[in-house]
Amino acid sequence: MRRLFPVTDQTVTSPPGAAPRSGEVQGDARADREWTLAELAAAYAYPEPHSGRREPWLRANMVSSLDGAAQHDGRSQPISCAADMRIFGTLRGLADAVLVGAETVRQEQYRPARAREAFAARRAAAGQGPAPAIAVVSRGLDLDFTLPLFTSPLVPTLVLTGAGAPQERVAEAEKAGARVVIAGEGASVDPARAVRALADLGLTRLLTEGGPRLLGQIVAAGVLDEMCLTLSPMLTAGDAQRIASGPAVAVPERFTLAALLEEDGFLFGRYCRT
Ligand SMILES: NC(=O)c1ccc[n+]([C@@H]2O[C@H](COP(=O)([O-])OP(=O)(O)OC[C@H]3O[C@@H](n4cnc5c(N)ncnc54)[C@H](OP(=O)(O)O)[C@@H]3O)[C@@H](O)[C@H]2O)c1
Questions:
Q1: Is domain 2-6+37-43+55-273 classified as CATH 3.40.430.10?
Q2: What is the DSSP letter of 241?
Q3: How does pLDDT run across 169-216, given as a tens digit for each residue?
Q4: Mutate which of 61, 84, 103, 228 to test ligand 1's pocket (most atoms within 8 Å of Cβ)?
Q5: Burial (CB count within 10 angstroms: exposed 0-12, middle 13-18, buried 19+), residue 13
Q6: pTM (two decimals)
């Protein structure tokens, strides 16, 4: 793993394996080796609270191919890599809650988040539970509530839905042990209200793992603070979704590059709302 941005006197400028050119910095001690989870956690730390008060911070983590595909054969794994999965795990290890669309839960067969030793001390010091809560966003609640995601998570799984959600499905979710949170007037969840509802539960370090339809609404609602984007050095063609879909925003929203890491040709960008 190499840090390409911000550029410092520790930034490696030689390609892997090449002898440094004359006058070139020898390089970061972390270059060209796998970063530890602690190093990744430091690189992806959430912003510190302002004046003692922690405001919700919503970051997204998505992977895209060079030609913009967010999946291949219905899953993101074929365009991911080991380093991407380490960052995926790190972002979960830092989060209070993971907001995810029901279709991603169904297609990617979501399981409860694990408690990982590497993040235990950091989470305890930050006053977090052993693992993030998975917060599934759904209108119809057509979810298999017999799955471990609902019946045996370390911290109760949340189901975010609208006030118009089918009551028998709400009852099924609650019977399985999920906590149902109403965050919209009709069938749909209002993303801004969802963020506020999670913050009211003390969940302010928020991560969304998409999918594209949910992320599109989060972007349109103007509540995304940070985009963690893995650019995979692959081309897929076809008609896969992009990382965010749905109606376009009126004016493209500008984000600022905060950091760029590289491993094995994959780029890991962190962009914050300007
Ligand atoms: N490249 C990546 O990083 C990445 C990340 C995640 C997923 N993916 C891929 O993306 C695909 C799935 O994504 P997707 O865009 O089709 O679906 P999605 O965004 O994961 O889920 C869509 C579903 O979420 C619920 N939903 C969305 N907006 C809602 C709202 N405002 N209120 C209430 N419920 C709402 C609805 O669930 P109900 O139908 O239950 O009502 C809707 O059908 C999969 O192929 C997955 O592999 C890729």
A1: yes
A2: -
A3: 999 999 999 999 999 999 999 999 999 999 999 999 999 999 999 999
A4: 103
A5: middle
A6: 0.94
